[in-house]
Specification:
Elements (H helix, E strand, L loop, with lengths): L13 H16 L6 H12 L6 H11 L2 H6 L2 H4 L7 H20 L10 H12 L6 E7 L5 E9 L9 H10 L4 E7 L9 H14 L5 E9 L2 E4 L8
Parallel strand pairs: 3-4
Antiparallel strand pairs: 1-2, 1-3, 4-5
Helix pairs in contact: 2-3, 2-6, 6-7, 8-9
Length: 235
């Protein structure tokens, strides 16, 4: 028999049942069964234990476009959304860091050229949703295994200064025999520009006489990726 009002019985907030149903669906069917805002709710549950977070999750998706774009959004932009504080931003950045570490783990201690899809996944996870251009280099040894992964330059929304001799100098310091160049286009479109192609060719011309091979230059964006070698823009 239900207890009468005022007898000390306190009904659980309506969102508790929703949270358990969503967690159960995730456990049973996996993330593919959830919409982006629902996956975001699961992250928000940890930061906001006592509130219905569905409206906030939907507002974030509407503002930024997708789960990945919300998680990767700069902290300053996230703070502009009503209801988003430091606890929520911390949870988002933990998820972002975890995704990057998982993606990098798939290429570490493996031959990069035989794990090319994992390399692309790592590059996209690390850079595709950044709001400023970054120029990254994967340094490889003679077995084409990863020695180091470094962001060499950070620029503006549409430009990053790259110095070919500095790229090659760093490769020599690390005793790398090959490199993969990577940068992002915050516009989302990964199509290489003339400047991208010319810069890559200049690096190849400087590196090749020193025994350093440029395997590829990958450009990533939220709309996909482009390989200069795959497009036959470099040889």
């Amino acid at each position: 028999m239900a207890k009468a009002r005022g007898s000390g019985f306190k009904e659980a907030p309506h969102y508790h049942g929703h949270r358990e149903r969503l967690r159960s669906r995730f456990r049973e069917s996996g993330p593919a069964a959830l919409a982006d805002y629902e996956l975001l709710e699961l992250v928000l549950f940890r930061a906001v234990p006592q509130r219905d977070v569905k409206p906030l999750a939907k507002a974030l998706i509407e503002q930024f476009g997708s789960f990945a774009e919300v998680i990767s959004a700069p902290s300053a932009r996230l703070k502009e959304i009503d209801g988003v504080g430091d606890a929520i931003i911390t949870e988002f950045k933990v998820v972002e860091a975890a995704a990057q570490h998982l993606a990098k783990g798939r290429i570490k201690s493996k031959k990069v050229l035989s794990s090319w899809s994992a390399v692309i996944e790592y590059c996209r996870t690390s850079m595709a949703f950044a709001d400023k251009e970054q120029f990254r280099i994967l340094f490889l040894d003679k077995r084409n295994q990863l020695i180091a992964d470094e962001v060499q330059q950070k620029g503006t929304v549409d430009h990053t200064p790259v110095y070919p001799r500095e790229v090659v100098k760093r490769a020599l310091e690390l005793s790398a025999t090959a490199i993969v160049l990577v940068h992002n286009h915050p516009s989302g479109d990964p199509t290489p520009s003339r400047a991208d192609i010319q810069m890559t060719k200049t690096i190849i011309d400087v590196a090749r006489p020193l025994g350093i091979e440029v395997h590829d230059h990958i450009i990533v964006g939220k709309d996909g990726h482009a390989s200069l070698k795959g497009l036959r823009l470099i040889s």
